[in-house]
Amino acid sequence: MTVRVLDGPPEGIRVPSGRDGHSRALRAAGLDRVEIRETGDKLTFTGHAAVFNRLSDDLGGFKERILPGAFGPVLNTNPDVRFLSLDHGGLPLARTSSGTMELREDPTGLSVVAELAPIQASRDLKVLIQRKDLSQMSFGFSMGDTGQETWTEEDGQLVRTISQFGRLFDVSPVTFPAYQQTDASMRALALAEAKRFPRLAQRRLRLLELQPSLRRSA
């Protein structure tokens, strides 16, 4: 493999997350080894919101990978991260600050263990995951001032490698691959789907409207 290290993104490449500490981007991993265990009224979700050393889909002229250790510094700050149900308008089903969700790094990536709220949305989520209607897990992040990244050209492919995240906002099981869902592309997809799937598009646009308030409360 031929690798060339770059000073940064080439001119014309728009990085979805930017360097603004409040700028939020979405990424996703497949729901590998996801499980929801039910014990009485308790529903416990386990899975991974991110996977290390795996190239993303094309993000607009470049691909992205996450290195082991990228989440360590931000997790050490005990961030207030929410487990959101996007199919219920961004409803939080668990939260690190309440002690109902634990995030940690393991050899695979960002591990999520969440005790979901005993409400209908959590039971709906269990059914959707068991049916494989939800097949990805996304996480919201920003790079901010403390994020670290490198840019390379690998056999002609532009690659952004993230070695440290600045902030974590939320994790969410999702229907569509969030590696292709920056805020802008999600809105474009929702508008394109509006005529064919009006209810789905309305729900997706509503989520986008909620995201600024989620960022402010993070």
Determine the mean pLDDT.
Answer: 78
Q: In this structure, how is the largest beta sheet organized?
A: 5 strands, mixed
Category by helix and strand content:
alpha+beta
Rg, Cα atoms, Å: 17 Å
Tell me what you see in this structure.
- The protein is elongated.
- It starts with a strand and ends with a helix.
- Helix 3 runs antiparallel to helix 4.
- It has a five-stranded mixed sheet with strand order 2-10-13-6-7, with helices on one face. Strands 1-11-12-5 form a four-stranded mixed sheet.
- The protein has helices at residues 72-75, 120-130, 183-193, 198-217, and strands at residues 3-6, 25-30, 35-39, 42-51, 63-66, 82-85, 91-95, 101-105, 109-116, 136-142, 148-154, 157-164, 167-174.
- The longest helix is centred in the last third of the chain and has 20 residues, at 198-217.
- With 218 residues, it is an alpha+beta fold.
- The model is unreliable at 17-22, 177-193 and 211-218 (pLDDT under 50).
- 30% of the residues are buried.
Please describe the topology of this protein.
Blueprint: E1 3-6, E2 25-30, E3 35-39, E4 42-51, E5 63-66, H1 72-75, E6 82-85, E7 91-95, E8 101-105, E9 109-116, H2 120-130, E10 136-142, E11 148-154, E12 157-164, E13 167-174, H3 183-193, H4 198-217
Parallel strand pairs: 5-12, 6-13
Antiparallel strand pairs: 1-11, 2-10, 3-4, 4-9, 6-7, 8-9, 10-13, 11-12
